[in-house]
Amino acid sequence: MSIATLADEIPLKLTALSHLTLDFSGCHNITDKEVEYLGNQIATNLPFLSNLSLNFSGCTKMTEQGFETTGNHLANNSGELQDLALNFSGCKKISKPLKSALKSQFKYSGDRVQIK
After folding, report:
1. How far apart are CA 15 and CA 109, in angstroms?
2. What are the tens digits of pLDDT across the range 7-65?
3. I need a labelling partner for 14 at 20 to 30 A (CA). Which of 39, 53, 79, 107 fits?
């Protein structure tokens, strides 16, 4: 199943979801566009989501553009989101300063927002 196919299912079947964990670690063919689309679908179609964990560690095609756009979708439409873990470790095209800047965009901070 592709990320786009998974993302397309979110508004159809998962709108009442409160916890979501997706692990794409090591999926080297994931692109910025796919991650941006998934982030947008999660942010706009899961109004009751309180806990989100996305692992993209080692996804080497991802760049700062995909990371930043996905993070912005989540930060601007976080609704009920209380706990967030985003793992982009091993994504060599994403800088530490950008990760820190994204973390500061969320309404809440501290241990409830983890961005690697």
Report:
1. 25
2. 888 877 778 889 999 999 988 888 889 988 998 888 888 888 889 898 988 888 888 88
3. 107
Whole-structure pTM value:
0.81
Q: At 39, which amino acid appears?
A: G
Contact call for residues 92 and 109 (beta carbons, < 8 A)? no
Q: What are the residue boundaries of the structural domains of the chain, listed by start?
A: 3-115
Sheet with 113-115, side-by-side order of all strands: 19-23, 51-55, 83-87, 113-115
In this structure, the strands spanning 51-55 and 19-23 are: parallel
The tokens 């947008």 sit on which residue? 40
